[in-house]
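Why does residue order matter? Because the sequence determines the fold. Keep that principle in mind as you read this record.
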Amino acid sequence: MLGTLVNTLAAVAGGLLGSLLKKGIPEKFTDLVQKGLALCILFIGIQGSLSGTNTLVTIISMVLGAIAGTALDLDAKVERLGAWTQARLAKKGGSKIAEGMVTASLLFCVGSMAVVGSLQSGLTGDHSTIYTKSLLDFVSAIILASSLGLGVCLSGAFVLVYQGAIVLLARWVGPVLSDYAVAEMSCVGSLLIIGLGLNMLGVTKLKVSNLLPAMFIPLILCLFM
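Structure:
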């Protein structure tokens, strides 16, 4: 778990540092910085979505994920968590906290480095990939938090649970997490990142949190398709 703990601390530390830097950015620049960041997030999402090879897996995953997420009302739960956290900080704007948390969590957990690095940690004790990812996440968290605020720090919890679970279950999930499955998970997750970017630009108002289950459905579909 050492690699995962380092990655978690890197996300939290980067988020805290970025939040401090945000206070030094004049308000007239904040909107443009966020729009520029949204364009970068769109690029990351489009780039990652090209990793998929089975369009049917992507479509079924998105449909089933939307149904599951809506039934569980994940978006409302994430909003309540953001509002609760914001209330503890004695400020307004819980939706901003939630946006920062979801955006950072997806960026840090979507992609092969999170999965492959965690498997290496669990199976061989080699943390080198996760350490590299930790450095990248630290820098990304600073940039994200400078625009989205303290919500980015909460992504550390998602990194800890997601990557930690893979590390602890590596011996059993390793055979299931083939290159094919990882690529399809990355594709679906990247589509969610595109949705986040569009939301940040004000083009859409997608409830991306309700689509989060879609990211894990390829694990099952790739066994049969």
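The mean pLDDT is 84.
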